[in-house]
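haha ok so turns out i had the wrong file open the whole time. this is the CORRECT one, sorry everyone. sequence first:
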Amino acid sequence: MIDNNNTTPALYLIPVTLGDTPHENVLPSYNAQVVADIRHFVVEEIRTARRFLRRMDREFPIDDCTFFEMGKHADTSRFAEYLSPIAKGHSVGVISEAGCPAVADPGADVVSLAQKRGIRVIPLVGPSSMILAVMASGLGGQSFAFNGYLPVQDGDRAKRLKQLESRAWAEGQTQLFIETPYRNRKMFDAMCASLRPDTRMCIAAGITTSDEWICTQTIREWKRTGMPDLGKIPAIFLIGR
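then structure:
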């Protein structure tokens, strides 16, 4: 149960917009109320976290805040230190680059440590590109799996795609994965070359942004229609039966 008075120190997981989208379109006003009382943040990148807080509230006292980095170059041995303000009665917020913290995100390591220490963890509501993609795809939503990035090498990627396709057909489990935007076209071509004609594929790009484009077709249909230029737009790929 969320403490609406925000008096109990906790680790708050603070969702971020998935792109240059107005906060009020995708984030509850309650999130801003919670963030207003937090001065310690564990973030993936300090610059973008500061920008996010300022967009949420132009008067937010950025200079009074302490930021701890949790990105790929962060010293994980210091994560316990990041949680130390909670023992002193101060809540800590976790902010990733986009979407929900700790989902396909380094924030999971901080949350894991908090759980081991019995610290209260409170996830706030916000956009998850994976959930939104499943919702809009028309593919099976009872069972699905996120597989992160697939191998870059052509042969290894083709093998992995076939493995995921086999699971989708055998278990009815929708398979999700992502790619660096500039490689979206290469991923599309690999899927068209590797997957069965009747396998269904969804491309969910730019979710919640002005560039949003979501389409589901069979591989046979994709070969006929092709893919639009998504070279700079984050996309999630989904396959299912």
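The chain has ten helices and ten strands.
again sry for the mixup
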